[in-house]
Each structure stands twice: as structure tokens, then as C-alpha cells.
């Protein structure tokens, strides 16, 4: 079970430890993925710098697109990692599993699919409608 009922009792230590371990494992995976993406980005830049002779517009455009894709991947990984950091800090504060919007309990099924969720489905949908 990833979240307890919204009562004033603290989360059982065993449950908190299990959640912490799961969140930490995913955070570590993302950190390793980020490091790998950084290395790949550096290799891409080195190849790009050493291989510009004779480039036409298509070659230049391809290199720019590859560089943009690599940068987008890095930003995405950093964003996901930040989400897991936030989830870990919410766990320490005792607010993990509760919606930041309405304060209600986030369904266990949502947390199992998206462990770093900070809002219930209703608040998430409301937020998305406002952004559209």
C-alpha cells in the first residue's frame, strides 16, 4: 500500500520505508540516466565540432535537430528527477499521498502508476483545463 487513509495518525514506519525505497530507487535510476545522457550529449558535441568540413544546410540542420533533441532529453530527465526529489521531501514531511490542491487523499492506484503525483485526478484535470 502506497498511501494511508487521511487520518491524523502518522504513516506506519514500514510503509514509509517501503515508499522511500521505491522513490529513491527511481530517483537513482533517473540520476544514472541523466549522467548517461550528458555523456552522449558531450560525444555528440565532440563529433559535431570535429566533423563540420563540407557540411551543407541539410547537415547543419540535422546536427541542430540532434542537439535540440539531446537538450530536450536532459531537461525531461532533470524534471522527472526533481519530481521524485519533491515526492521524497513530501514523504519526510508526512504529506506524501495527499493532494497539494484540495488536501484529499490521492488514490493508491494513481500513486502506483505515478509515484511522484502531487495532485488527485480531479485537481490535475482542473489544472490541465485551465492551462489549455
Summarize the structure.
Helices cover about 70% and strands about 0% of the residues.
Name some characteristics of this structure.
disordered N terminus, 4 helices, 2 domains
3D architecture notes:
- This protein is mainly α and 132 residues long.
- It has two domains: 11-49 and 57-96; 97-132, no CATH class.
- The chain is 70% helix and 0% strand.
- The chain has helices at 13-50, 57-93, 108-113, 121-131.
- α1 runs antiparallel to α2.
How much β-strand is present in the residues? under 5%
Q: What's the Cα radius of gyration? A: 20 Å
Averaged pLDDT: 84
Domain module count: 2
Q: Could you give a short account of the major beta sheet?
A: none
Domain Zinc finger DksA/TraR C4-type: 94-129
Keywords: Coiled coil, Metal-binding, Zinc, Zinc-finger
Zinc finger (dksA C4-type): 99-123
GO molecular function, one term: zinc ion binding
